[in-house]
């Protein structure tokens, strides 16, 4: 135990005691807000497309981006494009750019990156999925129910692919 006048070094503090100046140095991450940045619904062949009987082919494209807005604030952008086509033509195209503000304090880059590109999108995806479903329904078609996505698995796949590319580029540069 430190006596009055003793100098306290970080080694003298136990892991659960606050820093001597009262500063909170614990890592913290939280969802601040989420919002629609852009929503586009195209129904180019209505009303003819409502009479088409062929089963449509629906394709879904995802893109996730993140950027810092300040020292403790980041924005995640999730772009989802749903396109439904049949042999007669395009039935609908729904494009959603969904944003989320994430607060981060005392988090390393190694901790922040997986949160911004895997865990954060996992948290906000159900809300974006509902918007897509409602937009397709409001365009006059049966609601599009997107399946849950394993954002962590996709993140790990992309990380491994990037590491393999870097390794291949490094090997090619040595040849």
Percentage of residues in helical conformation: 25-40%
Looking at the overall shape, the CATH architecture of the domain at 30-143 is Roll
CATH topology of the domain at 30-143: Bacterial Protein-export protein SecB
Query: How many strand units?
Result: 4
Largest sheet: 4 strands, antiparallel
- Measured between the Cα atoms of the first and last residue, the distance is 61 Å
Overall description:
It is a single chain. The chain has two helices and four strands; from the N terminus they run ββββαα. The protein has a domain at 30-143: Bacterial Protein-export protein SecB, CATH 3.10.420.10. The chain has helices at residues 109-138, 151-174, and strands spanning 28-42, 57-68, 73-86, 89-105. The chain has a four-stranded antiparallel sheet with strand order 1-4-3-2, covered by helices on one side. The radius of gyration is 24 Å and the shape is flat. The chain is of the alpha+beta class and 175 residues long. A hairpin with a 2-residue loop joins strand 3 (73-86) and strand 4. It is 31% helix and 33% strand.
């Amino acid at each position: 135990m430190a006596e009055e006048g003793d100098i306290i070094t970080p080694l003298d503090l136990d892991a659960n005691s606050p820093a001597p100046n009262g500063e909170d140095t614990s890592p913290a991450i939280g969802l601040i807000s989420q919002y629609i940045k852009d929503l586009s619904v195209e129904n180019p062949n209505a009303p003819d497309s409502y009479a088409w009987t062929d089963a449509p082919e629906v394709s879904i494209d995802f893109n996730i981006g993140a950027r810092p807005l300040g020292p403790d604030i980041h924005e995640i952008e999730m772009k989802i494009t749903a396109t439904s086509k049949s042999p007669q033509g395009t039935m609908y195209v729904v494009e959603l750019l969904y944003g989320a503000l994430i607060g981060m304090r005392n988090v390393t880059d190694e901790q922040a990156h997986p949160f911004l590109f895997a865990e954060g999108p996992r948290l906000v995806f159900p809300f974006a999925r509902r918007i897509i479903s409602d937009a397709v329904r409001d365009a006059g078609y049966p609601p599009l129910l997107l399946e849950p996505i394993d954002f962590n698995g996709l993140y790990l796949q992309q990380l491994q692919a990037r590491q393999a590319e870097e390794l291949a580029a490094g090997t090619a540069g040595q040849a």
